[in-house]
Specification:
heterodimer; A: alpha/beta; Rossmann fold; 8 helices; about 40% helix; about 15% strand; globular; B: alpha+beta; Ubiquitin-like (UB roll); 5-stranded mixed sheet
Chain lengths: ~220, ~60
C-alpha cells in the first residue's frame, strides 16, 4: 500500500474547502464516547472531513453481531473497538492524531476523561448510560458541548431523525422515540442517518462563525 | 407551566422527581432543563415546580 504524503493529502483537502475552514477542522479535537453503530461511523465521517484529532473511548471488543451496522469488518472480530477503529481511521487519514481510552465510562471517571474536550459525541446504546454521560458532562464539564444520539431503531422513515438544540451545550440527534426495547432492531441505514446528523452537527459547531470571517 | 413547549396546569406543589414519575418518565433516563438551566440529578427531589416554570425534558431510549 502506497501511503500519500501529508502534503499531497493536504493539497487535496485544500482544494475542496476554503483554506480557513480546513485549518479550523484540522486544528480541532473531538471526543467520541461509545464506538458502536453511531460512534464508529461518526469517527469515520469526522476523519474524512479533516478533523485533526479524535479521542476514542469504548471498553468493548468487536463482535460478529456488530457487523450489521458498525464500521468494522470480519478482520476486526475480537479486537478492542478502540484499536480496530484506529486502524480504519489511519487508512482514511494516516496523519490524523488518535488518542484512545479502552475503559467503561462512569459518572466518576467521565469528568476527568472529557473535561478537556470542547465537543463530546455521546454514542452509547443503553439509555441509562446515555443519561449518565449527558448529565455528568452538563454538571461537571462547563466547557464541553455534547452531541447526543437518541432514537434510531428499526426501519421507519429516516425523516423523523432530526437534530435539536436542547440546551446551550446539548444537541440531540434522533427521532427521540424508537427504542431497541421495542424489538425492532437496529439497522445500518437509520443508525448511519443518526450518526450523520451527529457528525454534521459537530462540524457545524466547529465552523460556526467561520463563514462570516471569510466574508470579511 | 410549559413542558417541552406544551402548556400544563400544575395542580399541586410537587418535586421534579414526583413530576417525572407521575408523567411516565424514567428518572434515570432523562436530562432536565428548568428555566434555561440544567437541573443536577442530585436535586430532582429538592427541586419544586411552579406554575411559571418552563421545563425541557429529554428521555433517552436504547440504541446506538
Amino acid at each position: 500500500m502506497m501511503i500519500p504524503t501529508k502534503e499531497a493529502m493536504q493539497q487535496c483537502w485544500d482544494g475542496r474547502f476554503p483554506l480557513r475552514l480546513f485549518q479550523i477542522l484540522q486544528s480541532s479535537s473531538v471526543s467520541i464516547a461509545g464506538l458502536g453503530g453511531l460512534g464508529s461511523h461518526i469517527a469515520v465521517m469526522l476523519a474524512r472531513s479533516g478533523i485533526g484529532k479524535l479521542h476514542l473511548v469504548d471498553f468493548d471488543c468487536v463482535d460478529m453481531s456488530n457487523l450489521n451496522r458498525q464500521a468494522y469488518d470480519i478482520g476486526h472480530i475480537g479486537q478492542q473497538k478502540t484499536e480496530a477503529l484506529s486502524q480504519i481511521l489511519f487508512k482514511i487519514n494516516p496523519y490524523i492524531e488518535i488518542v484512545t481510552d479502552t475503559l467503561r465510562v462512569t459518572a466518576e471517571n467521565a469528568p476527568k476523561l472529557f473535561s478537556a474536550s470542547s465537543i463530546v459525541c455521546e454514542a452509547f446504546d443503553q439509555p441509562e448510560q446515555k443519561a449518565m454521560l449527558v448529565n455528568t458532562l452538563l454538571e461537571k464539564c462547563p466547557h464541553t458541548t455534547i452531541v447526543s444520539g437518541n432514537g434510531m431503531a428499526g426501519y421507519g422513515s429516516a425523516n423523523t431523525i432530526q437534530t435539536k438544540k436542547f440546551h446551550e451545550r446539548l444537541y440531540i440527534c434522533g427521532d427521540q422515540k424508537t427504542d431497541i426495547q421495542w424489538g425492532i432492531g437496529l439497522m445500518a441505514p437509520r443508525v448511519c442517518v443518526c450518526a450523520g446528523h451527529q457528525a454534521n452537527q459537530v462540524i457545524s459547531i466547529l465552523l460556526e462563525g467561520a463563514n462570516e470571517e471569510i466574508d470579511k | 407551566m410549559y413542558v417541552n413547549g406544551k402548556e400544563e396546569l400544575l395542580l399541586q406543589k410537587i418535586s421534579l422527581l414526583e413530576y417525572l414519575e407521575q408523567n411516565g418518565y424514567q428518572p434515570l433516563y432523562v436530562a432536565v432543563e428548568k428555566n434555561g438551566s440544567i437541573v443536577p440529578r442530585a436535586e430532582y427531589t429538592s427541586t419544586f415546580l411552579e406554575q411559571t416554570d418552563t421545563l425541557e425534558i429529554v428521555q433517552f431510549v436504547g440504541g446506538g
